[in-house]
């Protein structure tokens, strides 16, 4: 098996588009980043949808190779972390981009408010339990980052505990990467105005009422505090082995294409190979062809 | 919430195709059932693939409604059980049919040989832990039926324990159905000759060697014993609330279409409705439109 990238080195070689989305490190000003942009892609919506469709086959091929490797002694996998404000499109990304993959090789976990049992453990306990098996593409719809986002904004933990968590996350992710997991962290970046439009659209459509919660507006009223919490999290937890990507997400088609590109980057970096047979192919063929006809 | 079908009543109204696939009860002779047939469909492969593609949208709509119901207090879900001999197409069904669904609402569990911990419990322990949450479509790639199939053929448990299991399965499935789960049990029926062709094709293609295990041929040599074990299982565990379906599976396109039809039947039977808002829509709209512009 190829060995994972050594700790401290870049987690994966990126496409031009992936490179543009990747946070280079240091302080970040989300307000200065255009939520309607299409970094690394100069086509329109129709072209973007075609580009996504064209990624389906190479993604499926790479994913199957990774799955095969995992069934044959390989230790590697992929973890895609999706974060963003309400309506930023985590669910849409699961349907449109993660939905391109073979569901056999995908493990999605949607994190809700922690249960009493989960709260009785360290915040990384439930996250660790949800990690994908070898050969799989794991997807976190929300994640351990909620423990430094809503937990910070809503003061759900003492300030010193929040402080501790950034380093705990970095240490945990570094260990994960060293064990063979390629970690793709994405912040789906929408504007406050776009969120308003999307929430109103949910209210206008009775088939979308189930997605709406009055609490979404309470959280929205804390928009600046959330943006600041994201800026701090991105600055403090963008590491060489687990960098953040800021994905402009006002355009759904671009968001889908961007996440697919990052998955493709990660899988191409892993470059999984079809496992060699650990049996004698000719001998097995003879066992089949020599059997008495039934 | 609509209540689930009462125990003892048919689990779900079926389409003509679904009805033809459903085991009516009583003894079954698998050798007499054509593995190349296309019950309830008289088109060719291209027509079958079109028919499958046409099911994608209604399936996605029904699945989203079920998911929404589950997020809004509903207790219902679907469990698809896939069984069949090696190469019968359980993996292909996951990719081509289950892959039509939104992965957010799907939970796939592939059961391998039980671990030491699992063996220390009743055979239904690990199965119960893998049950889908409310609103989800759960899929079992192999299942508790292995405990009366390979366990019977390979004498992995004493005969009286195997005997006990049929009734234990029926009682467990009846309880599950009464709690709101629609259970779809499918035997993917291939011929012995077709399995030989598929195993040889795996040997011929280095990208498929990872799927091949010499033990597959050992199991194949017990073909008649496995067919008998399936016949006994189907006869003894086809109940009104959890009937078996025998799906001719030599033609992959028909197998995919048949399973999609059964999923569609189950979801249409549940007929999930968009949950009503449990908040005042106008009040929430005002909260959004009245907010100071940012």
Which features would summarize this protein structure in a list?
homodimer; 294 residues; alpha/beta; Rossmann fold; 5-stranded parallel beta sheet; 47% helix; disordered N terminus
Describe the structure.
2 copies of one chain form a homodimer. The first copy, chain A, is built from 12 helices and 5 strands. Chain A is an alpha/beta fold and 294 residues long. Chain A has a single domain (16-273), classed as 3-Layer(aba) Sandwich (Rossmann fold). In chain A, helix 2 (45-71) runs parallel beside helix 11 (252-270). The longest helix of chain A is centred in the first third of the chain and has 27 residues, at 45-71. Chain A is globular, with a radius of gyration of 21 Å. The two termini of chain A are 40 Å apart. Mean pLDDT of chain A is 94; it is low at 1-11. Chains A and B meet through helix 3, strand 2, helix 8 and helix 12 of A and helix 3, strand 2, helix 8 and helix 12 of B.
- Name the shape of chain A in a single word: globular
CATH topology of chain A: Rossmann fold
Q: Which residue ranges of chain A are poorly predicted, with pLDDT under 50 across at least 5 consecutive positions? A: 1-11
- Percent of residues in beta strands of chain A: 5-15%
Helix content of chain A: 40-55%
Question: What number is the mean pLDDT of chain A?
Answer: 94
Strand order of the largest sheet of chain A: 2-3-1-4-5
Give the C-level CATH assignment of chain A: Alpha Beta
